[in-house]
Specification:
The complex is a heterodimer of chains A (about 190) and B (about 230).
Chain A: H1 5-13, H2 20-39, H3 42-58, H4 69-87, H5 90-103, H6 111-132, H7 135-146, H8 151-158, H9 162-186
Helix pairs in contact in A: 2-3, 2-4, 2-7, 3-4, 4-8, 6-9, 7-9, 8-9
Chain B: H1 13-20, H2 26-38, H3 40-56, H4 77-87, H5 95-107, E1 110-115, E2 118-123, H6 133-156, H7 160-175, H8 178-204, H9 210-218
Antiparallel strand pairs in B: 1-2
Helix pairs in contact in B: 1-2, 2-3, 4-7, 4-9, 5-6, 6-7, 6-8, 8-9
The chains are: A mainly alpha (about 190), B mainly alpha (about 230).
The complex binds zinc ion.
Chain lengths: ~190, ~230
C-alpha cells in the first residue's frame, strides 16, 4: 500500500530521513511545473524547485497535519518564486526576452517541421503572455489551469478569500485573452 | 484588435469562472446558462476563455530537474557535532567557525585565545566543574543558531551541496537525544584532565586540528590519523 504524504512525514521526522525522498519524487514534477510557469525560465525554475524541497525538509517539523502537504509545499514554492520575482530587475528580463526571441527563429520550412514550429510559437507566446501578467493573477491561472487545483484550495494556499481567487482568475483570463488574440491576428 | 470589452454590468464574473472550470453549483449553472442565452457578450467571452484555455494547455513540460535532498540517518549529538566541525574548515575564514569552537570550548570550561602561536587553550579552573543538562541544552540551541547562520551564508554563495549537508546537520541537531546532552554535560568534568593534556600538546606541536582533537577526546575516538591535520584546513 502506498504511504500517504502524512505517513511519509511522520517517518522522516521519526528518523527515517531517506523517506523524505519519496515526497520529493511524488511532488517534484508539480513543483517544477509551478515554478517554471511562475518564473518563465528553466534554469531559475530548477533552482527554485531544489530550494523548495530543501526548505520543506528543513522546516518539516513545523508542518502541521491539519493542512495538506501539497498546499504547504505549494505555498513554500510560491514564496520562493515571489522572492525571486521581486529581486529581478527589468534589465534582466529584457535580456532574457531577447535571448528567447533569437532562440526561436524558424530553422526549416518542410510541412512536418512547420507544425512543430507553429506549436513552438504558440508555446512561446503563451509563456510571454503569462509572464507579462501581474504575479498574483499568474499564480491563480497556473494553479488552476496546470495544477488543476480547486478554487477553494487556491484560496487556502494563498490565504485570500474564495471570491478574490475567482476575480483574479477572471481578470487573468481576460488579460490573457487580450494578449493571445493579438497573437492570433499575427499568425 | 478583436477583443470585446469586458462585461462589468452583468455581475457574472465569479459564476462564469466557476462554470468554466466545472466548479459551479447547480444553482450557479442554472444562473449562468440562463444568462448566456440572453447576453451575447458574456457568451462570446466564455467562448474566448475556452480558446485561451486551449492555448494555455499547449505549454506542457517534458523535462524535469534532478532534485536531491541529502538526508542522513539520525545520529548521536556527538557525531553531529563532529561532522559540523569537519565541515567548518571550508568556513574557517567565516567568523562562525571560530565562534563555534569558542562556544563548545567555553561549554567545556576551557578558554580559547588566539595569539601569536595560533589557537591556544587554557582550562578555566574558576568555573564550576558541575554542569547541568540545561547548560547542554543551551549549547544545542546556540549550535543550531550557528548552523542556521552557516546555511544562510552558504545559500547566499549558492553552495548547494554544502547547504544540503548543513541542512541535514541542522535537523539532526534538532533531533539529538536529550540523553546525549546529559551525557555531554556529565562528561565535561572527566574531560578536564584530558583537555589539559591537549593544551600541552597544542603548545608543543604547531597547527593541530582543534576540533578533531577535542571531539575525538570527547567521544573516546582513538582515531589518531587526524592529529596531524592543520588548523583551518
Ligand atoms: Zn452578460
Amino acid at each position: 500500500m502506498e504511504l500517504s504524504d502524512t505517513q511519509i512525514i511522520e517517518r522522516t521526522l521519526g528518523g527515517d530521513t531517506d523517506a523524505f525522498n519519496l515526497l520529493v519524487r511524488r511532488w517534484e514534477r508539480h513543483i517544477y511545473g509551478l515554478t517554471l510557469r511562475m518564473l518563465g525560465r528553466d534554469d531559475e525554475a530548477k533552482d527554485a524547485t531544489q530550494e523548495t524541497f530543501l526548505s520543506a525538509y528543513r522546516n518539516l517539523s513545523k508542518f502541521r497535519g491539519e493542512a495538506k502537504f501539497s498546499s504547504w509545499i505549494y505555498r513554500i514554492a510560491l514564496n520562493i518564486c515571489n522572492t525571486r520575482l521581486r529581486g529581478r530587475s527589468r534589465f534582466v528580463i529584457s535580456i532574457e526576452e531577447q535571448r528567447e526571441e533569437s532562440g526561436f527563429e524558424p530553422v526549416a520550412d518542410t510541412n512536418d517541421l512547420g507544425d512543430n514550429i507553429q506549436q513552438q510559437q504558440i508555446t512561446l507566446h503563451v509563456r510571454r503572455a503569462l509572464q507579462s501578467l501581474p504575479a498574483e493573477m499568474r499564480q491563480v491561472i497556473v494553479m488552476k489551469e496546470y495544477e488543476g487545483l480547486k478554487f477553494s484550495e487556491i484560496a487556502d494556499i494563498l490565504g485570500i478569500p474564495l471570491s478574490t481567487v475567482k476575480t483574479r482568475m477572471y481578470t487573468g483570463l481576460s488579460e490573457m485573452r487580450k494578449r493571445l488574440e493579438r497573437l492570433r491576428e499575427a499568425i | 484588435m478583436s477583443y470585446t470589452d469586458k462585461t462589468p454590468n452583468c455581475n457574472m464574473h465569479e459564476a462564469m469562472v466557476s462554470y468554466l472550470y466545472d466548479e459551479a453549483s447547480v444553482e450557479e449553472c442554472r444562473q449562468v446558462e440562463a444568462h448566456l442565452v440572453e447576453c451575447r457578450s458574456c457568451k462570446e467571452e466564455l467562448e474566448a476563455f475556452h480558446r485561451v484555455r486551449g492555448m494555455l494547455q499547449q505549454w506542457q513540460i517534458d523535462d524535469l530537474p534532478v532534485v536531491r535532498v541529502e538526508t542522513t540517518a539520525r545520529r548521536s549529538f556527538f557525531e553531529v557535532l563532529r561532522e559540523l566541525f569537519t565541515l567548518m574548515p571550508v568556513w574557517a575564514k567565516a567568523t562562525g567557525a571560530v565562534a563555534a569552537l569558542m562556544l563548545v570550548l567555553a561549554a567545556l570550561g576551557t578558554e580559547v585565545s588566539i595569539g601569536k602561536q595560533g589557537f591556544s587553550l587554557s582550562a578555566d579552573i574558576t568555573r564550576s566543574n558541575k554542569r547541568s543538562a540545561s547548560d547542554a541544552e543551551q549549547i544545542r540551541v546556540d549550535l543550531r543558531v550557528m548552523v542556521n547562520d552557516m546555511i544562510l551564508a552558504s545559500e547566499r554563495q549558492q553552495k548547494d551541496e554544502l547547504t544540503m549537508k548543513l541542512v541535514a546537520l541542522e535537523s539532526q541537531l534538532q533531533s539529538a537525544h536529550q540523553s546525549d546532552l546529559v551525557r555531554l554535560a556529565a562528561s565535561i568534568e572527566d574531560q578536564r584532565a584530558r583537555i589539559k593534556t591537549i593544551e600541552r600538546d597544542i603548545d608543543r606541536r604547531e597547527g593541530l586540528n582543534l576540533a578533531d582533537i577535542l571531539f575525538s577526546e570527547l567521544t573516546n575516538d582513538r582515531d589518531e590519523r587526524r592529529t596531524d591535520k592543520k588548523i583551518g584546513d
